[in-house]
Amino acid sequence: MPRLQADADQALWVPVTESLGWRGRRHRKAAIRMLLAQANRAMGADERPGSGVAAWAMSQAAPLLMRRAAGRVLVWVWKSDPELVVVMAQVQEATSQLRAARAMMPMEYDDTESFRGTYLGVGEKLAMPLPADPRTPPFATYTWDTVTHFVTVTAVCADRERFGTAIGQVDDLARSLRVVDDLAVGESAGVLRIDPA
């Protein structure tokens, strides 16, 4: 199964994917708390009692779950303000069901622009700084179709007014994304072996 790699600027982003234990714990917890607050707002609910405990529990489980995903999911948070921006990249097999689900997305999701990645080539970018529903947080998605897989990057921002300050750095992070796969020599008929002698 292919997995993802990216060159995230360590001065701007804290990786959640490999941050087990105390390392990155504060950033993980803040990011999860922000996502829970946005989910509550989208459902029209105020912050629920015990959501701080839920954020802590999820922050402990998240790295283990992502490690189990074996590189198919990568997550970063904004270093200076972990509750502002969360970015998640994932690679999924391009099944017919996934293609059908993408084709049935609401019309506002058709307003995409071309976006060139350094390694993945030309994909699509959809930036929604002011979603129609005020309960929906601003977000941006980047998508590449590699024929066999979809590579997507989703960035969620907690503040509509500050969305524009971070989107350039999210663009840079998305551009650095690449797909890697383990291939055994001779696995493909198209592999040319050269004798080192």
Structural class category: alpha+beta
Shape, principal axes of CA atoms = globular
Secondary structure tally, helices? 4
Task: Output the helix-strand order.
Answer: EEHHEEHEEEEHE
Helix content: 25-40%
* CA gyration radius, whole angstroms: 18 Å
How would you characterize the largest beta sheet? 7 strands, antiparallel
Proportion of strand residues: 25-35%
- Largest sheet: spatial strand order: 2-3-4-8-7-6-5
Distance between the termini: 33 Å
Mean pLDDT: 79
How many strand elements? 9
Uncertain residue segments: none
- As an assembly, this protein is single chain
Write up what this structure looks like.
- By secondary structure, the protein is an alpha+beta fold.
- The protein has four helices and nine strands, in the order ββααββαββββαβ.
- Strands 2-3-4-8-7-6-5 form a seven-stranded antiparallel beta sheet, sandwiched between helices.
What distinguishing features does this structure have?
single chain, 197 residues, alpha+beta, seven-stranded antiparallel β-sheet
Summarize the structure.
By secondary structure, the chain is α+β, with helices and mostly antiparallel strands. The chain has helices spanning about 25-40, 50-70, 95-105, 165-175; strands at about 5, 15, 75-80, 85-95, 115, 120-130, 140-145, 150-155, 180. It is globular.
